[in-house]
Automatic annotation (TrEMBL):
Residues 75-373 form the Protein kinase domain. SUPFAM superfamilies: Protein kinase-like (PK-like). Belongs to the protein kinase superfamily. InterPro entries: Kinase-like_dom_sf (IPR011009), Prot_kinase_dom (IPR000719), Protein_kinase_ATP_BS (IPR017441), Ser/Thr_kinase_AS (IPR008271). GO terms for molecular function: ATP binding; protein serine/threonine kinase activity. ATP binds at K110. It comes from the Eukaryota. Keywords: ATP-binding, Kinase, Nucleotide-binding, Serine/threonine-protein kinase, Transferase. This is RCK1-like protein. Pfam families: Pkinase.
Length: 471
């Protein structure tokens, strides 16, 4: 489903001047299409779906390097850096003079979103309804992305939005390290300190979301990106983690950012009912159709932590119904020899996260206070080069905000908590919901998101399984 993160920085060779807008599509103010769409107040580049659809015909047929470029107005796509089930993600630059820092653009083909809806909607009342529901999904993703990333470094920053006849374009901060998933593949598994470094930052991000009344619902290593820090594999071996430094990171992983809000949801009463997520990381209550809450994210954190520490996910079965049975019973093991050297503190944290009963499961504050999470092995080894050096600071791999994750945690949380709009005074979100009501057609409840069982890239698992087999 995802391509590896290959940051190819070559400029695309466009054969036309894409700074020149297509004729006949601008209004007097220079805005593309008619103003007044409900996106306009939320997103400066907002466009109305129907008006845009007609405009597609004005585009000259040009051989762009990427077809997604042809209808994109303000950015030039440079290279493809990722792919989701229904989208392609590109490295791009703003061509309107609003900054030269490269950004990431997720181009979602509308048709694929509509087809996905058709597959899962049992009784669609026609195209319009499907379009509206898809649009609602996208609005939801953008609004949540925009809200949560405003005041926290642990999310990819939301930057902009464009809509054309064929695509939704979501513009966000470009994170250059790649996915944590690929790091697990590269290193096979992480030291406990590096696992703490990653999962603490995920927990801070989740705390931020939960405080805003938003549940992410798709926490997995593929949705965790990182800013790189210099990496020197032990003895030149790139598959061995280097020294971990508190406040800096290790294994080439610095700041960690949570992304992909496609399944995120604002839940007012702390509960939600729509089954969704990536199967291996989904909590048992989802399969049991019970009401579930913010605690599903805690299960996701548990699955990620387990995977970071041993290199394979806690639940894996090719057969989906067997997988569901295993998850429902919380049937996982700390298999020897993989878990022999992993501390009881780490196992204890996982046991509390992978607790089948959501009422007994850790909530985000319980996890942030977990003793294992709040201790670092490197602090107990006097000879190790634990802290950031001048070199780290000079080469930018030192992140002041996380100078000492151990103590910065509470300070960071406090800072974030102070800037989070409280549930009741989140006018932006309320506004979005109000605007949603203006959608044509009726909105008939939530979509059932399909489970995506994708272990194609889980070479981690295969590698571990092979090793187990030959052990
Ligand atoms: N801001 C970003 N910076 C760098 N890479 C990114 C960024 N956003 C996305 N990517 C890359 O593109 C991939 C796909 O993005 P994303 O997960 O948002 O797409 P999706 O269609 O929602 O995927 P999925 O099918 O998992 O839901 C990511 O896994 C990541 O490798």
């Amino acid at each position: 489903m995802h391509n590896s993160f290959i940051c190819d920085c070559r400029m695309s060779s466009l054969s036309v001047d894409i700074n020149t807008p297509p004729s006949g599509t601008e209004n007097d103010e220079g805005n593309f299409m008619q103003e007044g769409g409900y996106f306009d107040d939320i997103f400066p580049t907002g466009l109305e779906l129907d008006e845009v659809s007609d405009a597609a015909t004005y585009y000259p047929s040009i051989n762009y390097r990427f077809p997604e470029q042809s209808e994109l107005r303000n950015y030039e796509l440079l290279s493809k850096i990722g792919e989701g089930a229904f989208s392609k993600v590109f490295k791009a630059v703003d061509i309107t003079g609003n900054g030269q820092v490269p950004v990431a653009i997720k181009a979602i083909k509308k048709k694929s979103v509509y087809i996905r809806d058709e597959e899962i909607d049992h009784d669609p009342e026609g195209d319009e309804e499907i379009k509206n529901s898809s649009r609602k999904q996208i609005i939801n993703e953008i609004a949540i992305h925009r809200m949560v990333s405003k005041n926290s470094p642990h999310f990819t920053k939301f930057i902009d939005f464009e809509e054309s006849a064929t695509y939704f374009y979501l513009v966000s901060e470009l994170v250059t390290g790649g996915e944590i998933f690929d790091k697990i593949v590269q290193l096979t598994y992480f030291s406990e300190d590096l696992a703490r470094h990653v999962i603490t930052q995920v927990a801070i991000a989740v705390k931020h979301m939960h405080y805003m009344g938003i549940v992410h619902r798709d926490i997995k290593p593929e949705n965790l990106l990182f800013e790189p820090i210099p990496f020197h594999g032990r003895n030149g071996n790139i598959q061995k983690e280097d020294t971990f430094k508190l406040g800096v990171g290790g294994g080439g992983i610095g700041l960690v950012k949570l992304m992909d809000f496609g399944l995120s949801k604002r839940i007012s009463s702390n509960t939600a009912k729509t089954p969704c997520g990536t199967m291996e990381y989904s909590a048992p209550e989802i399969f049991k159709s019970e009401e579930y809450s913010m605690k599903v994210d805690m299960w996701g954190i548990g699955c990620v932590l387990f995977t970071l520490l041993c290199g394979y996910p806690p639940f894996y079965e090719k057969n989906q119904s067997k997988l569901v049975r295993k998850i429902s019973k919380g049937d996982y093991e700390f298999l020897a020899p993989w878990w022999d050297d992993i501390s009881s503190g780490a196992k204890n944290a996982i046991i509390h996260l992978l607790e089948v009963d959501p009422k007994k499961r850790y909530d985000i504050d319980d996890f942030l206070n977990d003793p294992w999470l709040n201790s670092y092995d490197c602090l107990n080894s006097p000879n190790s080069n634990t802290y950031a050096t001048i070199e780290d600071i000079l080469n930018g791999s030192f992140d002041e905000r996380t100078e000492n994750l151990h103590s910065a945690l509470s300070c960071e949380l406090q800072k974030q908590v102070n800037t989070i709009p409280h549930e009741n005074d989140s006018s932006e979100f309320i506004y979005m919901v109000e605007e949603d009501r203006h959608l044509r057609g009726s909105w008939t409840g939530e979509l059932m998101m399909p489970f995506t069982l994708d272990l194609k890239r889980s070479s981690v698992y295969r590698r571990r399984k092979d090793k187990l087999f030959f052990w």
